[in-house]
Amino acid sequence: MGTILARIVTNLRPDKIINWYRANARDLPWRAPGTSPWGVLLSEVMSHQTQVERAAPIWQEWIERWPTPAAFAQTGTDEILRAWGSLGYPRRALRLKECAQTIVRDHGGRVPEDVDTLLALPGIGDYTARAVACFAYGKNVPVVDTNVRRVVARVERGEALGKPGKKEIDEVAQLLPAQNGPEFSVGLMELGALVCTSRSPQCGVCPVRAECAWLAAGQPAAEAPRRSQKFAGTDRQVRGKIMRVLREAEGPVEQERIHAAWPDAAQRSRALFSLLEDGLAEQDENGYFHLPR
């Protein structure tokens, strides 16, 4: 354990990461001073599997419209799904409502600050719980997303990003400095997002290039490069098209308008059934479809 800690301190220098972050951080709305823990939680859920540039304007609308968990918890599900728009994976919006309702019911409307309590909230996983504890409350806990995993794998182990594992949380925990830990954590994430990227890393401007084991090893590639997940023609695309019809409708939608959303009847039926099963759509007694209320 002591050997690993010494190696980590040598390679990922907190002072370099923090100074780089202060000079290069993106101007994201949820990083503004005074952002509430609820605002941080919203930002983390919205930007999961979604580019932050797409999430930022919608986050701004939401935090003005629903500035507290209590305000959000009492909102109709159809209104929430319309406001979610085309962010993708709309089940996140349903879980956010459940999460807000739990915060109101069990925590007096205040977002919890410790990791274990956050993990007990609906829809909150390892990454989001630690991100809220760290970035909203200043807890010096490891926050491990794909960007952090990539930076640590390269700089510390001289390896390309491999499969995720629980041991990575312990590894990142050893990296954390006693001072300015949360700023170091967000700096690691930002470095992976802007410089130490998956396909075109900008090693020439990296603040820890002199210490990087991956660069010294000649930038070895992963054994099995990850294939990009296609979107066009998938059930997910069809679900999105049906959801758009429902979001934009002023009332219940007849079957024919659903049919017009996608030509393949079998795939359309499968996508529609999955939306009904996931609670993202409902069918009334007349056979019309609408967002859940």
From TrEMBL:
This is Adenine DNA glycosylase. It catalyses: Hydrolyzes free adenine bases from 7,8-dihydro-8-oxoguanine:adenine mismatched double-stranded DNA, leaving an apurinic site. GO terms for biological process: base-excision repair; mismatch repair. Belongs to the Nth/MutY family. Signal peptide: none annotated. InterPro entries: DNA_glycosylase (IPR011257), Endonuclease-III-like_CS2 (IPR004036), Endonuclease3_FeS-loop_motif (IPR003651), HhH-GPD_domain (IPR003265), HhH_base_excis_C (IPR023170), HhH_motif (IPR000445), MIG/MutY (IPR044298). GO terms for molecular function: 4 iron, 4 sulfur cluster binding; 8-oxo-7,8-dihydroguanine DNA N-glycosylase activity; adenine/guanine mispair binding; metal ion binding; oxidized purine DNA binding; purine-specific mismatch base pair DNA N-glycosylase activity. Residues 46-194 form the HhH-GPD domain. Coiled coil: none annotated. CDD domains: ENDO3c. It comes from Corynebacterium ureicelerivorans. Its EC number is 3.2.2.31. Keywords: 4Fe-4S, DNA damage, DNA repair, Glycosidase, Hydrolase, Iron, Iron-sulfur, Metal-binding. Transmembrane segments: none annotated. SUPFAM superfamilies: DNA-glycosylase (SSF48150). Its cofactor is [4Fe-4S] cluster. The keyword ATP-binding does not apply. It comes from the Bacteria.
